[in-house]
Amino acid sequence: MSDLIPAINISADQWTIADAEKVYGVSNWGGGYFKIGANGNVHVIPDQQQSSMKIDFSSVIKEIREENIQFPVVIRFHDILRSQVMNLNESFNSVIEEANYKGTYKGVYPIKVNQMREVVEEIVDAGAPYDFGLEAGSKPELLAVLAYNTNENALTILNGYKDEEFIRLALLGRKLGRKVVVVIEKYSELLMLVKISKELNIEPIVGIRSKMRAKGQGRWQGSSGDKAKFGLTVAEVIKSARYLEAQGMGHTLKLLHFHIGSQLPDIRAIKDAVNESARIYAELHKMGFKLEYVDVGGGLGIDYDGSQSTNDSSRNYSVREYVADVVYGLREMCDLENVPHPHIVSESGRALTAHHSCVITEVVGEIKPEGASISTELIEGEHILLSNMRALLVGMDDNINLQETFNDASQWKEQAAEAFKLRVIGLEELAKIETLYWQILRDVQTRSAEKTFTPEYTNVLDSTLSSQYLCNFSVFQSAVDSWAIGQLLPVVPLTGLDTPPVKNCSLVDITCDSDGKIDQFVIDHATSSVLPMPAVSEDEKCYLGLFLTGAYQDVMGDMHNLFGRLNEVHIFSHDDDPEDFYIEEIIKGTTVEEVLSIMQYHPRSMALDMKRLIDKQVANGKIRPREGVKWTDFYEDCLSGYTYLNTD
Ligand SMILES: *Cc1c(COP(=O)(O)O)cnc(C)c1O
User: Fold this and answer.
1) Counting CB atoms within 10 angstroms of each CB, which of 43, 139, 195, 435 has the fewest?
2) What is the residue-wise DSSP string for 188-245?
3) Range of the domain at 193
């Protein structure tokens, strides 16, 4: 995709919601859950079975304000989570039926994608009718999964590197009657598992992860191939099976697992991997190992940029197509090889959770490229560079060559900076030249907009003249993949989309880090460095939604600059409610005190120290007693407050 900044030249009386839809592409990435309403506000349709139910983001914002919850806020739509769990399970079940496939679908949710208890509970609850299970990849996750996946018919899949405690915990799960599968990532884990299960006399369910030839594209393609971090080579797979057999445990080998990477953009990689795994499964079967499950891992992608393409932030297939490729791929190979159809396990995390949460942040300031302007009146004996710049501005008329004017102004501005360094012009003259430069650029922009064709320099000009909107959030806490791996996340103004955008901006966060910014958007099907913004009146606040943050972003953020976790609002749809929703739960974000404690500070004793210091100034007569008490209280209030800007 190019870095084109799309010119939006639609007048207010011709602007329609369809135009807004085209600019922001909400329906393209919204998965049917988000759309722009007729009133120009973004709406949520949380339950696709009941499309008449619509939640207006402006009502949500209003209620959050009435509850005195400070922004930024994470909004969780539990209905979306439930819908996604249902969609995935129903897709597998219906394709399995249609294909006359003999195995069943037994999916699991890998909790690393979002370990929030409320998220895991909701997924377990919505998945109960399908015996949907959980996956853990570490000891802490395993402890959580053991306590929360209590359905004896659901699978518990254990991936990741393991120690003895990990294996003992897994066997505890077996004792509780659960279907806990220990997936061997490394040959030595198998020896440990056999030893401990014999010692405890508990029969394990063994899975093996196979390193695949089939490579996924995209950012996680290193998850397969010879250099993959996890999994066994085919030689190790055979060695493992034979070792189990020799130990009288051949029958405990029940599952074959692969995972070729997250966010797979191209469906071909999925077909390849399914095919490869089915061959391995069939061969093992013919060797006498009657495996029951093939686990196709994660990788089911999300179309973040709405392009339905093989872009890194997109996918060129639907959930239904993914499911069909898995089911038909396995069926075809098994029928050819004359082995039974295995039960199918998948570990989709991103696809289940991405849509269910978003971040609402408020714009708290605008950083204009020109900053302020100063008087540029002519002064006797001024430098020729300054006079030239003024002449350029004064001389602008309808017949002027705008490209040339733009070039001249840019060149003279650079010369002025050099001249200042060489002590040829003074600070005041430099400031005047810069003021004139920005006035010329604005004038060129206005005049270009009136032209019927779009001149070449317009893109550069729009980008140069765009403002940075300062938003009350931290990229490192709330959108870490946009910083770490250039992941595109949809950003949309939540209201006012019934009028055409009036200016372009990029977004910067409140951390003291130049990387704390978002300057990659998908606008009108192209990547753009700026986001078109509708007009906002002085007395209104402007709220932006950062969407599809439910997978990974919600839980991988860090405390850069000591900005902590966000306030959270959990929303349930409710047909009888006039606004179609109610706030089910509010979870307070991290307080200043809490983030300081994590960094080994002692906030309570800091408060006492501060009180002592203030009291000393009171005793010295530097602060009046009444004032002293106020300062002490103020310090304590800030300690127990929210880490983000207080804009009330
Ligand atoms: C991360 C991971 C997943 C989840 O992948 P998604 O692409 O988010 O669905 C599944 N399985 C394993 C082994 C993983 O490491």
Assistant:
1) 195
2) HHHHHHHHHHHHHT---EEEEEBP-S----STTGGGSSTT-SS-B-HHHHHHHHHHHH
3) 103-347
Q: Which of 217, 262, 296 to mutate to test the pocket of ligand 1 (most atoms within 8 A of CB)?
A: 262
User: Is 83 part of a structural domain of the chain?
Assistant: no
CATH number at 321 reads: 3.20.20.10
Burial 221-241 (b: 16+ CB within 10 A, else e): bebbeeebebbbeeebbbebb
Q: How far is the CA of 300 from the centre of ligand 1 (A)?
A: 9
What pLDDT score does 3 carry? 39
Print the SS3 string covering 78-96.
HHHHHHHHHHHHHHHHHHH
- Please indicate whether residue 30, judged by its CB atom, sits closer than 6 Å to ligand 1: no
Distance CA 212, CA 221 (A): 11
pLDDT digits 0-9 by tens, 246-276 = 999 999 999 999 999 999 999 999 999 999 9
323 CB neighbour count, 10 Å cutoff: 25
Ligand 1 nearest atom to the CA of residue 160, by list position: 13
- Write the residue with the smallest CA distance to atom 10 of ligand 1: 298
Say if 96 falls within a structural domain.
Answer: no
| Ligand 1 centroid from CA 270, angstroms | 14
Pocket test for ligand 1, best of 347, 352, 481, 549 (most atoms within 8 A of CB): 347
Q: State whether 433 and 538 are in the same domain.
A: no
209 lines ligand 1 (CB under 6 A): no
CATH number of the domain encompassing residue 454: 1.20.58.930
State yes or no: pLDDT of 227 exceeds 80: no
C-alpha span between 508 and 460 (Å, rounded)? 20
Q: What is the CATH number of the domain that holds 28?
A: 2.40.37.10
CA–CA dist 244, 551 (Å, integer) = 37
558 inside domain: yes
Helix, strand or coil for residue 578? coil
- pLDDT tens per residue across span 159-176: 999 999 999 999 999 999
Are both 421 and 329 inside the same structural domain? no
Based on the domain organization, do 393 and 363 belong to the same domain? no
Q: Is pLDDT of 6 > 70?
A: no
427 & 471 share domain: no
Q: Specify whether 24 is located in the same domain as 42.
A: yes
Task: Give the whole-number percent of the chain exceeding pLDDT 90.
Answer: 86
Strand partners, 359: 74, 546
DSSP symbol at 563? -
Length of the chain: 648
Kindly state whether residues 175 and 208 are assigned to the same domain.
Answer: yes
pTM comes to: 0.93
Are 246 and 118 within one domain?
Answer: yes
Q: 91 lies in a domain?
A: no
**Do residues 227 and 265 share a domain?**
yes
Number of domains forming the structure of the chain: 4
Q: Which of 395, 429, 462 is the last residue in one of the domains?
A: 462
